[in-house]
Amino acid sequence: MPFKLDDYFDRETFARIKTFADTMDTPFLVVDTATVSRQYDELVSGFPFAKVYYAVKANPAPAIIELVRDKGANFDIASIYELDKVMGLGVSADRISYGNTIKKSKDIRYFFEKGVRLFATDSEADLRNIAKAAPGSRVYVRILTEGTQTADWPLSRKFGCQTDMAMDLLIMARDLGLVPYGVSFHVGSQQRDIGTWDAAIAKVKVIFERLSEEDGIELKMINMGGGFPANYMSRTNDMTTYAEEITRFLLEDFGDDLPEIILEPGRSLVANAGVLVSEVVLISRKARTALNRWVYVDVGKFSGLIETLDESIKFPIYVEKNGELEEAVIAGPTCDSADIMYEDYKYPLPLNLAIGDRLYWLSTGAYTTTYSAIEFNGFPPLKDYYI
To answer: What does the alpha-carbon distance between residue 149 and residue 340 come to, in Å, rounded to a whole number?
Structure first.
Protein backbone atom coordinates (compact mmCIF):
# COMPACT_ATOMS: atom_id res chain seq x y z
CA MET A 1 0.00 0.00 0.00
CA PRO A 2 1.19 3.60 -0.66
CA PHE A 3 1.03 4.48 3.04
CA LYS A 4 1.73 2.89 6.40
CA LEU A 5 -1.16 1.90 8.64
CA ASP A 6 0.96 2.95 11.62
CA ASP A 7 0.74 6.54 10.42
CA TYR A 8 -3.00 6.48 11.13
CA PHE A 9 -3.60 4.05 13.99
CA ASP A 10 -1.45 2.29 16.50
CA ARG A 11 -1.69 -1.46 16.03
CA GLU A 12 -3.61 -2.03 19.26
CA THR A 13 -6.32 0.49 18.38
CA PHE A 14 -6.75 -0.82 14.85
CA ALA A 15 -6.83 -4.41 16.11
CA ARG A 16 -9.63 -3.45 18.50
CA ILE A 17 -11.57 -1.79 15.68
CA LYS A 18 -11.04 -4.75 13.38
CA THR A 19 -12.08 -7.28 16.03
CA PHE A 20 -15.34 -5.38 16.41
CA ALA A 21 -15.74 -4.97 12.65
CA ASP A 22 -15.28 -8.67 11.92
CA THR A 23 -18.61 -9.41 13.58
CA MET A 24 -20.62 -6.91 11.49
CA ASP A 25 -22.05 -6.85 7.98
CA THR A 26 -20.73 -4.07 5.76
CA PRO A 27 -20.89 -1.19 5.14
CA PHE A 28 -20.56 0.67 8.44
CA LEU A 29 -18.47 3.18 10.31
CA VAL A 30 -16.56 2.43 13.51
CA VAL A 31 -15.32 5.35 15.61
CA ASP A 32 -12.71 4.99 18.34
CA THR A 33 -13.81 7.45 21.03
CA ALA A 34 -10.41 7.39 22.74
CA THR A 35 -8.96 8.93 19.59
CA VAL A 36 -11.60 11.69 19.65
CA SER A 37 -10.74 12.38 23.29
CA ARG A 38 -7.05 12.61 22.47
CA GLN A 39 -7.64 14.93 19.52
CA TYR A 40 -9.76 17.22 21.71
CA ASP A 41 -7.08 17.37 24.40
CA GLU A 42 -4.43 18.16 21.80
CA LEU A 43 -6.49 21.05 20.44
CA VAL A 44 -7.10 22.51 23.90
CA SER A 45 -3.43 22.14 24.76
CA GLY A 46 -2.49 24.05 21.61
CA PHE A 47 -5.05 26.80 22.16
CA PRO A 48 -5.45 27.10 25.95
CA PHE A 49 -6.86 30.62 25.59
CA ALA A 50 -9.67 29.64 23.18
CA LYS A 51 -13.22 28.38 23.62
CA VAL A 52 -14.06 25.25 21.65
CA TYR A 53 -17.42 25.13 19.86
CA TYR A 54 -17.74 21.64 18.40
CA ALA A 55 -19.19 21.73 14.87
CA VAL A 56 -21.98 19.20 15.34
CA LYS A 57 -22.46 18.75 11.59
CA ALA A 58 -19.18 16.82 11.39
CA ASN A 59 -20.59 13.94 13.42
CA PRO A 60 -23.74 14.38 15.54
CA ALA A 61 -23.64 10.99 17.25
CA PRO A 62 -24.73 11.18 20.90
CA ALA A 63 -21.52 9.38 21.93
CA ILE A 64 -19.44 12.21 20.42
CA ILE A 65 -21.63 15.02 21.73
CA GLU A 66 -21.57 13.58 25.24
CA LEU A 67 -17.81 13.05 25.14
CA VAL A 68 -16.93 16.63 24.19
CA ARG A 69 -19.74 17.99 26.40
CA ASP A 70 -18.12 16.39 29.42
CA LYS A 71 -14.77 17.85 28.40
CA GLY A 72 -16.26 21.34 28.54
CA ALA A 73 -16.96 21.99 24.87
CA ASN A 74 -19.50 24.44 23.55
CA PHE A 75 -21.42 23.72 20.36
CA ASP A 76 -21.73 25.28 16.90
CA ILE A 77 -25.27 24.53 15.77
CA ALA A 78 -26.68 24.81 12.24
CA SER A 79 -30.39 23.97 12.63
CA ILE A 80 -33.25 23.55 15.07
CA TYR A 81 -32.79 19.78 14.74
CA GLU A 82 -29.18 19.90 15.90
CA LEU A 83 -30.28 22.24 18.68
CA ASP A 84 -32.91 19.82 19.95
CA LYS A 85 -30.45 16.92 19.85
CA VAL A 86 -27.71 18.77 21.74
CA MET A 87 -30.02 20.31 24.34
CA GLY A 88 -31.68 16.92 24.75
CA LEU A 89 -28.27 15.62 25.80
CA GLY A 90 -28.00 18.14 28.60
CA VAL A 91 -26.19 21.05 26.96
CA SER A 92 -27.35 24.44 28.22
CA ALA A 93 -28.17 27.35 25.91
CA ASP A 94 -25.21 29.44 27.06
CA ARG A 95 -22.90 26.84 25.45
CA ILE A 96 -24.51 27.17 22.02
CA SER A 97 -23.91 29.39 19.00
CA TYR A 98 -26.28 29.52 16.02
CA GLY A 99 -23.50 29.50 13.47
CA ASN A 100 -25.52 29.17 10.26
CA THR A 101 -25.90 32.45 8.38
CA ILE A 102 -28.80 31.04 6.35
CA LYS A 103 -31.83 30.61 8.60
CA LYS A 104 -35.56 31.20 8.81
CA SER A 105 -36.91 33.89 11.07
CA LYS A 106 -39.04 31.32 12.91
CA ASP A 107 -35.91 29.24 13.58
CA ILE A 108 -34.13 32.27 15.02
CA ARG A 109 -37.10 32.75 17.31
CA TYR A 110 -36.95 29.08 18.31
CA PHE A 111 -33.29 29.39 19.29
CA PHE A 112 -34.03 32.59 21.21
CA GLU A 113 -36.90 31.00 23.11
CA LYS A 114 -34.57 28.12 24.03
CA GLY A 115 -32.18 30.66 25.55
CA VAL A 116 -29.53 31.00 22.83
CA ARG A 117 -28.09 34.50 22.61
CA LEU A 118 -25.18 34.17 20.17
CA PHE A 119 -25.89 34.36 16.43
CA ALA A 120 -23.83 34.46 13.23
CA THR A 121 -24.82 36.64 10.29
CA ASP A 122 -23.47 37.90 6.97
CA SER A 123 -26.34 39.84 5.39
CA GLU A 124 -28.68 42.72 6.14
CA ALA A 125 -31.83 40.63 5.72
CA ASP A 126 -30.64 38.01 8.19
CA LEU A 127 -29.48 40.66 10.64
CA ARG A 128 -32.90 42.32 10.61
CA ASN A 129 -34.50 38.94 11.22
CA ILE A 130 -32.25 38.43 14.25
CA ALA A 131 -33.15 41.88 15.59
CA LYS A 132 -36.87 41.04 15.38
CA ALA A 133 -36.79 37.41 16.51
CA ALA A 134 -33.91 37.54 19.02
CA PRO A 135 -33.79 41.11 20.37
CA GLY A 136 -30.73 42.14 22.34
CA SER A 137 -28.68 39.12 21.27
CA ARG A 138 -24.97 39.12 20.52
CA VAL A 139 -24.10 38.85 16.83
CA TYR A 140 -20.89 38.18 14.97
CA VAL A 141 -20.41 38.79 11.26
CA ARG A 142 -18.75 36.27 9.00
CA ILE A 143 -16.31 37.66 6.44
CA LEU A 144 -15.10 36.23 3.16
CA THR A 145 -11.62 34.74 3.13
CA GLU A 146 -9.07 33.69 0.55
CA GLY A 147 -7.19 30.42 0.43
CA THR A 148 -9.69 28.20 -1.36
CA GLN A 149 -6.95 26.80 -3.59
CA THR A 150 -5.21 25.23 -0.62
CA ALA A 151 -8.31 23.88 1.14
CA ASP A 152 -9.35 20.40 0.06
CA TRP A 153 -13.00 21.27 0.81
CA PRO A 154 -13.44 25.05 0.24
CA LEU A 155 -16.26 26.90 1.98
CA SER A 156 -15.81 30.60 1.30
CA ARG A 157 -18.02 31.29 -1.73
CA LYS A 158 -21.40 30.62 -0.15
CA PHE A 159 -20.82 32.24 3.23
CA GLY A 160 -19.48 35.55 4.43
CA CYS A 161 -19.33 39.12 3.17
CA GLN A 162 -16.69 41.66 2.24
CA THR A 163 -14.93 43.66 4.95
CA ASP A 164 -16.76 46.93 4.25
CA MET A 165 -20.15 45.22 4.44
CA ALA A 166 -19.13 43.45 7.66
CA MET A 167 -18.47 46.83 9.27
CA ASP A 168 -21.78 48.18 7.99
CA LEU A 169 -23.58 45.18 9.47
CA LEU A 170 -21.93 45.55 12.86
CA ILE A 171 -22.92 49.24 12.98
CA MET A 172 -26.44 48.30 11.93
CA ALA A 173 -26.54 45.63 14.65
CA ARG A 174 -25.87 48.30 17.25
CA ASP A 175 -28.54 50.56 15.77
CA LEU A 176 -31.06 47.68 15.79
CA GLY A 177 -30.52 47.04 19.50
CA LEU A 178 -28.29 44.01 19.08
CA VAL A 179 -24.82 43.61 20.56
CA PRO A 180 -22.10 43.80 17.86
CA TYR A 181 -19.93 41.15 19.43
CA GLY A 182 -17.32 39.98 16.96
CA VAL A 183 -16.15 38.72 13.58
CA SER A 184 -15.88 35.19 12.23
CA PHE A 185 -14.20 33.55 9.28
CA HIS A 186 -13.56 30.07 7.92
CA VAL A 187 -10.44 29.44 5.84
CA GLY A 188 -11.86 26.28 4.26
CA SER A 189 -12.16 22.73 5.50
CA GLN A 190 -9.00 20.62 5.46
CA GLN A 191 -6.89 23.74 5.03
CA ARG A 192 -3.26 22.82 4.47
CA ASP A 193 -1.83 26.36 4.19
CA ILE A 194 -1.49 27.80 7.69
CA GLY A 195 -0.75 31.22 6.21
CA THR A 196 -4.41 31.66 5.26
CA TRP A 197 -5.17 32.26 8.95
CA ASP A 198 -2.65 35.11 8.93
CA ALA A 199 -4.45 36.93 6.12
CA ALA A 200 -7.86 36.38 7.73
CA ILE A 201 -6.74 37.61 11.15
CA ALA A 202 -5.24 40.72 9.52
CA LYS A 203 -8.65 41.49 7.98
CA VAL A 204 -10.30 41.08 11.35
CA LYS A 205 -7.76 43.45 12.93
CA VAL A 206 -8.73 46.17 10.45
CA ILE A 207 -12.41 45.75 11.32
CA PHE A 208 -11.71 45.91 15.06
CA GLU A 209 -9.63 49.07 14.72
CA ARG A 210 -11.88 50.98 12.33
CA LEU A 211 -15.05 50.28 14.28
CA SER A 212 -13.37 51.31 17.51
CA GLU A 213 -11.84 54.52 16.14
CA GLU A 214 -14.65 55.68 13.86
CA ASP A 215 -17.82 54.34 15.44
CA GLY A 216 -17.04 53.66 19.08
CA ILE A 217 -17.82 49.96 18.77
CA GLU A 218 -15.53 47.73 20.80
CA LEU A 219 -15.71 44.20 19.44
CA LYS A 220 -15.01 41.40 21.90
CA MET A 221 -14.61 38.16 19.95
CA ILE A 222 -12.94 36.47 16.97
CA ASN A 223 -14.47 33.22 15.75
CA MET A 224 -11.77 31.50 13.70
CA GLY A 225 -14.05 28.67 12.60
CA GLY A 226 -12.60 25.30 11.75
CA GLY A 227 -10.32 24.21 8.93
CA PHE A 228 -7.84 22.17 10.97
CA PRO A 229 -6.96 19.06 9.00
CA ALA A 230 -7.46 15.35 9.35
CA ASN A 231 -4.92 12.73 8.34
CA TYR A 232 -5.81 11.92 4.72
CA MET A 233 -3.48 10.98 1.86
CA SER A 234 -2.21 14.56 1.38
CA ARG A 235 0.36 15.54 3.95
CA THR A 236 -0.39 18.28 6.50
CA ASN A 237 1.38 19.78 9.49
CA ASP A 238 0.47 18.50 12.94
CA MET A 239 -1.87 20.34 15.27
CA THR A 240 0.99 21.65 17.38
CA THR A 241 2.43 23.47 14.36
CA TYR A 242 -0.97 24.92 13.45
CA ALA A 243 -1.46 26.14 17.01
CA GLU A 244 1.99 27.70 17.29
CA GLU A 245 1.72 29.55 13.99
CA ILE A 246 -1.85 30.77 14.44
CA THR A 247 -1.09 31.94 17.97
CA ARG A 248 1.85 33.89 16.57
CA PHE A 249 -0.44 35.53 13.99
CA LEU A 250 -2.88 36.54 16.72
CA LEU A 251 -0.17 37.99 18.95
CA GLU A 252 1.37 39.92 16.07
CA ASP A 253 -1.93 41.65 15.33
CA PHE A 254 -3.54 41.92 18.76
CA GLY A 255 -0.67 41.70 21.24
CA ASP A 256 -1.03 40.02 24.60
CA ASP A 257 -4.51 41.47 25.16
CA LEU A 258 -6.33 39.01 22.92
CA PRO A 259 -10.08 39.24 22.42
CA GLU A 260 -12.18 36.18 23.16
CA ILE A 261 -11.15 33.48 20.68
CA ILE A 262 -13.57 30.82 19.46
CA LEU A 263 -12.63 27.70 17.49
CA GLU A 264 -15.20 25.52 15.71
CA PRO A 265 -13.44 22.20 15.09
CA GLY A 266 -15.28 19.29 13.54
CA ARG A 267 -13.19 17.30 11.09
CA SER A 268 -9.99 17.64 13.14
CA LEU A 269 -11.66 16.12 16.21
CA VAL A 270 -13.48 13.12 14.76
CA ALA A 271 -12.17 12.25 11.29
CA ASN A 272 -9.03 10.39 12.36
CA ALA A 273 -11.03 8.29 14.82
CA GLY A 274 -13.20 6.65 12.14
CA VAL A 275 -12.82 3.57 9.96
CA LEU A 276 -15.45 2.94 7.30
CA VAL A 277 -15.58 -0.77 6.52
CA SER A 278 -16.73 -1.86 3.06
CA GLU A 279 -16.74 -5.01 0.96
CA VAL A 280 -15.74 -5.59 -2.64
CA VAL A 281 -18.89 -6.34 -4.66
CA LEU A 282 -17.40 -6.73 -8.11
CA ILE A 283 -14.11 -6.42 -9.99
CA SER A 284 -14.05 -5.96 -13.76
CA ARG A 285 -12.21 -4.49 -16.71
CA LYS A 286 -13.78 -2.44 -19.49
CA ALA A 287 -11.71 -4.07 -22.26
CA ARG A 288 -9.40 -7.02 -22.76
CA THR A 289 -6.46 -4.61 -22.97
CA ALA A 290 -7.58 -2.29 -20.18
CA LEU A 291 -4.72 -1.31 -17.90
CA ASN A 292 -6.92 -0.63 -14.88
CA ARG A 293 -9.53 -2.65 -13.02
CA TRP A 294 -12.80 -1.25 -11.79
CA VAL A 295 -13.34 -2.16 -8.15
CA TYR A 296 -16.96 -1.77 -7.04
CA VAL A 297 -17.63 -1.65 -3.31
CA ASP A 298 -20.79 -1.57 -1.19
CA VAL A 299 -20.30 2.06 -0.11
CA GLY A 300 -20.17 5.15 -2.29
CA LYS A 301 -20.88 8.83 -2.73
CA PHE A 302 -24.50 8.38 -1.65
CA SER A 303 -23.68 6.35 1.46
CA GLY A 304 -21.15 8.57 3.17
CA LEU A 305 -18.35 9.31 0.73
CA ILE A 306 -19.71 12.49 -0.88
CA GLU A 307 -16.45 14.27 -0.05
CA THR A 308 -14.85 12.25 -2.83
CA LEU A 309 -16.81 14.60 -5.12
CA ASP A 310 -14.28 15.93 -7.65
CA GLU A 311 -11.89 13.62 -5.78
CA SER A 312 -11.41 16.43 -3.23
CA ILE A 313 -10.79 14.25 -0.18
CA LYS A 314 -8.54 11.27 -0.74
CA PHE A 315 -9.14 8.77 2.02
CA PRO A 316 -6.41 6.27 2.87
CA ILE A 317 -7.67 2.77 2.05
CA TYR A 318 -6.25 -0.26 3.82
CA VAL A 319 -6.62 -3.86 2.66
CA GLU A 320 -5.23 -6.93 4.34
CA LYS A 321 -3.87 -8.62 1.23
CA ASN A 322 -0.30 -8.01 0.13
CA GLY A 323 1.51 -8.56 -3.12
CA GLU A 324 1.89 -6.84 -6.47
CA LEU A 325 -0.13 -3.63 -6.81
CA GLU A 326 -2.09 -2.29 -9.76
CA GLU A 327 -3.91 1.03 -9.99
CA ALA A 328 -7.70 0.75 -9.90
CA VAL A 329 -10.80 2.85 -10.31
CA ILE A 330 -13.01 2.65 -7.21
CA ALA A 331 -16.78 3.05 -7.55
CA GLY A 332 -19.88 2.63 -5.43
CA PRO A 333 -22.80 0.19 -5.69
CA THR A 334 -25.62 2.43 -6.95
CA CYS A 335 -26.99 2.71 -10.47
CA ASP A 336 -25.87 6.32 -10.80
CA SER A 337 -22.90 7.07 -13.03
CA ALA A 338 -21.78 9.82 -10.64
CA ASP A 339 -21.13 7.18 -7.99
CA ILE A 340 -17.42 6.89 -8.74
CA MET A 341 -15.10 7.87 -5.93
CA TYR A 342 -11.72 7.77 -7.65
CA GLU A 343 -11.14 7.59 -11.40
CA ASP A 344 -8.52 10.23 -12.17
CA TYR A 345 -6.60 9.45 -9.00
CA LYS A 346 -6.28 5.69 -9.29
CA TYR A 347 -5.57 3.76 -6.11
CA PRO A 348 -2.89 1.07 -6.05
CA LEU A 349 -4.65 -2.09 -4.86
CA PRO A 350 -3.32 -5.66 -4.71
CA LEU A 351 -3.78 -7.68 -7.88
CA ASN A 352 -5.05 -10.58 -5.79
CA LEU A 353 -7.90 -8.48 -4.35
CA ALA A 354 -11.10 -10.52 -4.71
CA ILE A 355 -14.85 -10.19 -4.43
CA GLY A 356 -15.81 -10.33 -0.76
CA ASP A 357 -12.56 -8.77 0.50
CA ARG A 358 -12.86 -5.80 2.79
CA LEU A 359 -11.59 -2.26 2.24
CA TYR A 360 -10.98 -0.15 5.34
CA TRP A 361 -11.39 3.56 4.64
CA LEU A 362 -9.36 5.41 7.25
CA SER A 363 -9.97 8.91 8.66
CA THR A 364 -13.69 8.68 7.93
CA GLY A 365 -15.13 9.74 11.30
CA ALA A 366 -16.29 13.13 9.96
CA TYR A 367 -18.86 13.97 7.30
CA THR A 368 -19.73 10.38 6.41
CA THR A 369 -22.81 9.44 8.44
CA THR A 370 -24.18 12.97 8.05
CA TYR A 371 -23.82 12.89 4.26
CA SER A 372 -25.29 9.41 3.86
CA ALA A 373 -28.51 9.26 1.83
CA ILE A 374 -31.61 7.88 3.47
CA GLU A 375 -32.84 5.51 0.75
CA PHE A 376 -31.16 6.03 -2.63
CA ASN A 377 -31.68 2.81 -4.62
CA GLY A 378 -33.21 1.48 -1.41
CA PHE A 379 -29.86 1.34 0.39
CA PRO A 380 -30.22 2.26 4.07
CA PRO A 381 -28.18 5.02 5.73
CA LEU A 382 -24.65 4.20 6.78
CA LYS A 383 -24.57 2.42 10.12
CA ASP A 384 -22.21 3.74 12.80
CA TYR A 385 -20.76 2.31 16.00
CA TYR A 386 -18.72 3.92 18.78
CA ILE A 387 -16.28 1.90 20.83
So the answer is: 23
Q: Which of 1-10, 151-160, 268-277, 290-299 has the lowest mean pLDDT?
A: 151-160
Judge whether 15 lies within some domain: no
If one counts the domains in the chain, the total is: 2
Residue 223's region, left for phi above 0, alpha for psi from -120 to 50, else beta, is beta
Given 265, 286, 317, the domain boundary residue is 265
What SS3 class is residue 345? strand
Kindly state the percentage of the chain with pLDDT values over 70: 97
Q: Quote the domain boundaries for residue 297.
A: 5-9+271-386
The residue type at 311: E
Contact 227, 219 (CB under 8 A): no
CA distance 152 to 150: 6
CATH number of 165's domain: 3.20.20.10
In order of 14, 100, 103, 153, 192, the CA distances from 187 in angstroms are 32, 16, 22, 10, 10
Residues 67 and 133 in one domain: yes
Shared domain check, 368 and 329: yes
The structure's pTM equals 0.95
Strand 293-297 and strand 274-284: the pairing is antiparallel
